[in-house]
Amino acid sequence: MTIFDSCVMRLQTIGEYVKKIDDKTNKQLLPKYPQVPWVKVIGQRNIISHEYSAVDEEKIFITIKKHLPPLKSTVLLIIKDIEKDLDSQE
């Protein structure tokens, strides 16, 4: 497997988990964090999963370089907010 293929599979996994989180929270959590284009994250997962031959290497590279850092920051913020909410319920 090439590095590119590995990166694409990781992006697919990220999209899959974003979709699961959205479903499990009845689409209530992710809209609180509009700085990430969640629909596009899920859409990219769908392209990778169902139209692999249509995957554009340059778009994947741009996603990794430009969009993953803000996604990571937002996910860390979500975790922090959830932990804070859980602590306040104790």
TrEMBL record:
List, alphabetically, the GO terms of the cellular component aspect.
toxin-antitoxin complex
Keywords attached to this Swiss-Prot or TrEMBL record, sorted alphabetically, are: Hydrolase, Nuclease, Nucleotide-binding, Phosphoprotein, Toxin-antitoxin system
Entry-linked Pfam families: HepT-like
List the InterPro entries.
HepT-like (IPR008201), HepT-like_sf (IPR037038), HepT_RNase_toxin (IPR051813)
Task: List the GO molecular function terms.
Answer: hydrolase activity; nucleotide binding; RNA nuclease activity
PANTHER family from the xrefs? Answer: RNASE MJ1380-RELATED, UPF0331 PROTEIN MJ0127
UniProt record similarity statement? Belongs to the HepT RNase toxin family.
Name-wise, this protein is DUF86 domain-containing protein
Protein species of origin: Parabacteroides merdae
